[in-house]
Batch of 3 targets.
Target 1
Amino acid sequence: MSTLVTNNIKEGTWQTTKRNFLIVFTLLSFLFAQSQVTTTDLTLKWVNYPGRINSLHGLIQSAPKLALNTADYKPAYLEQFIQGTRKLLNQRDSIIADSIINLIAVNFFTDVAYGNHPPNLQSTCYKFKLNIYNVNELIIKHFKTNTLPNLVQYLNNYSKEVVKLLATLNKYQDSSKKNNARIKQLIRATNDYRWLRAISETQRIVLVNIPSAQLKVYERENVLLSMKLILGKVSTPSKTFSTLIQKITINPYWFVPSSIAINEMLPKLKQDNGYINRNHLQVLNTNYKVVNSDNINWDNYDANNFPFTIRQSTGCDNSLGIIKLEFDSPFGVYLHDTPEKSLFTHNTRFYSHGCMRMEKPIEMAKLLMQKNSIALDTIDLEACSKRPDPITIPVPDKIPLVVWYNLIDFDASGAVKFYKDVYHQFTY
């Protein structure tokens, strides 16, 4: 469990996987016990220390305060030892019991460390390893010193976001007027941020949160850069995924998605002969060669017959602006600049067809280039008015990008903020 790899699976499957692992591990423990029945020295002898079992049980009973579910950790099994109703007839029984209790502890503390579910992403082009903690060693250390509650505190305090989320969660749980929607949002967010803190320990992470329309670059618990974003309209929502940012394109072309070209541009092309030139567009044939749009009778084409690609020329008025970040995604979306800077003054910023427009594209590009940011300084970014050719620069160290949908985020002061479920995606 200390080297969990996130997959694009729902929370129910995540829990099922853990239960199946518990069953398999228990069977293996039984087989081991049969072959090692004469062994007298186990690392952890839980059954010899009922106080340790009681301490673990108490922590599991307080799981809701930790944004976890008590029932996930077999409290009834531990209660049998606390109440003295579980009879161990021989050494083999004791070995099996110790193995089961230790696995319960590993399961519980792993969830405290990494969260009890992965973020719900629509696509995982990049998968993360969760291995910053050696949960087994941490349990052994705190078992020997009888300080298991301190391990919970240590793991929670590793993330300042988790500390704030748990404090907020506990206030809602203790309130006489229960807001179950807020409580469920806080539980999910707490476990998401546990996962985020774990993956940002060993690498920089670019995080986009759709409901807050924000981008943040994390390194450990530090936010290196934050900015506003413009994201997809409700009718064309931005997607959630993980991937690697691999390249930066300066003065990019905008290849118009076919849905936009057919549904939005074609009706205008049929009515306005000057639409192509006025918007600095180019028409490409099936061989991606530029053709003269004046020779095209647009009335001959429709959604079922449109053998063209429409491309917008580079320039200051290009819809992608002067910088685009390149990464693999099944959704054909980008992080990019925009000429419509005034939209960043709006509190609600859902205007795009699904792409993500950045408030600070140059700062973002320089951060991605790190020590090689001087490469950007040699490019005249003001030359966009001359419609220069695109320049693509590989990112020295590919940086993971996570786009998630979280109704809770943090403002500039670090305070917890709740956001509207703009796409109506949160499940209760």
Note: DSSP finds twelve helices and 18 strands in the chain.
Target 2
Amino acid sequence: MIRHLLPLLVVATSISAAVAEERPVAASAKAIAPLKAGAALPDVSVHDAAGKSVKLSMYHAEGPVVIVFFRGSWCPICTQHFQDLIKVHPELVKLGAKMIAVSPDTVENTRGNIEKLKIPFLLLSDSDLAAAKAFGLAFQVDGETITKYKGFGIDVEKASGRNHHALPVPAVYIVDKSGKIAFAHSNPDYTKRLDIPSILTELKKIQ
């Protein structure tokens, strides 16, 4: 009996290791190894605007979820992308989908961004980059860029409340009801974001 159980124990151990795996922070945005379509949604925790710890796996049971990773509320291109997503949000709801945005902002900055932009969907704080690492999106920001940002009045340490000097590459994931990633898109060039029609097109494919 024990001999027959051994293969099952090995498989169970492998699955647990995969769930717990934390991908390293890449040396640059171009060096990331993001999760692809077909992978399982990582069982990772972040924080909502009230500071409560929540798991991303809580949200896909009733229908598909669109997860969008942002660099932070200080990023003007992210803010513009937010405006586009806010406009399309009613269409996503009609398709039975939820939208979740994730950024390295502190809980306080997350709450402030929700109020400032009147964001109608869930915005979560990933200041420790747990989700960004699990999705393979986290990368180290070099010292020269940190200095340049400070010259623009951008303080990434204050934004995240951490001194890790890391950010996520902007990305869009669509997760189906089973928890499988049905669509994945990321671009190391933070100025280029996935257009809204493409999100709707990919979402309709899994309805």
Note: The first strand starts at residue 45 and ends at 47.
Target 3
Amino acid sequence: MSHDRPNPCDTAAPPPAAARGRSGRTWLVVLDDTEEMGAALRFAIRRAEHTGGRVALLHVVEHADLGPFFGVRDIMEAEAREEAERLLHRWAEHINGHTGEFPALYLREGDPLDQLLRLIDEEPSISVLVLAAGTEPGGPGPLITALTGKHSSRLRIPLTILPGCLSNEEIDALT
């Protein structure tokens, strides 16, 4: 699948803030399988609730590296994409229950860092990127490491980094 082709899972940008009576601020969260992702998502939901903003979700399906086994790779990637769509829609229902608005959904394929930076460049409606630091001794995680290091100059929006170990109550107190 071409990375430059529009994705049917990408939703349209929200209408102007004045038309919605909202702040227009969009809080982007990267959905992955890490434990700390829940902290980033809760923070974004709470900020959207309190500011009249919106949540956006990005999930990146990484390509399977199976060498010459193209048929197997295609099947694995199709299954991963279907699972990613289910994941995005499940979280979208959850967010809608809290904010009263469905989030913008973005499903991309490829390298997570590259796709994240590309999305931020392509979508002027995205206002803030919210990530939570990993709780393992190996460091905060690859995205945070890259975005606070050599790729920091590529961000056009603020980056909010939460400690991944915050409880729901602690996140609620912050927001």
Note: The chain is about 40% helix and 20% strand.
